[in-house]
Design goal:
35% of the residues lie in helices and 25% in strands. By secondary structure, the chain is of the alpha+beta class. Strand 2 and strand 3 form a beta hairpin. The termini are far apart. The chain binds copper (II) ion. Copper (II) ion binds next to helix 2.
C-alpha cells in the first residue's frame, strides 16, 4: 500500500512538472495590418519573442492570435515585442469587431 501511494505521488509530481501553462491571446494592432508585408513583419518578429509557440495573423479581422507559454512570458511582454517593430498592440475584447481603416497607409510598402 505504501508503495502504491508513493507511486501515485511520483506520478502526480511528474504530471504537474510536465503540464505547461499554454495560453492564447488575441491582439489587434495600430497601425493596422494591410497586406502580406504587414503580416510577415509581425509574424517574423514576434515568432522569436520568448515563450511564443504559434502566431497567426488575420488581416480581414485585424487580429493576431498568439499561443504562448505563460511560464515564460506575459501578454505585456508580447505587447512590448510589438513596440520594437513600431506597432501598438492591445487585447481584443470578446465579441469585438475591428473595422479596417481603409484610409490608413500601409507602413510596410
Ligand atoms: Cu502592408
Amino acid at each position: 500500500m505504501k508503495k502504491l501511494i508513493l507511486l501515485i505521488a511520483m506520478l502526480l509530481t511528474m504530471t504537474v512538472g510536465l503540464a505547461k501553462d499554454i495560453k492564447t491571446v488575441v491582439l489587434t494592432t495600430v497601425p493596422q495590418m494591410h497586406c502580406e508585408n504587414c503580416e510577415k513583419r509581425i509574424k517574423e518578429n514576434i515568432r522569436f519573442e520568448k515563450g511564443v509557440k504559434k502566431i497567426e495573423t488575420d488581416v480581414e479581422h485585424q487580429t493576431v492570435t498568439i499561443t504562448y507559454d505563460a511560464d515564460k512570458t506575459t501578454v505585456e511582454n508580447l505587447i512590448k515585442g510589438f513596440e520594437k517593430i513600431k506597432y501598438q498592440a492591445r487585447e481584443v475584447k470578446e465579441g469585438e469587431q475591428i473595422v479596417t481603416n481603409e484610409e490608413e497607409e500601409c507602413p510596410n510598402m
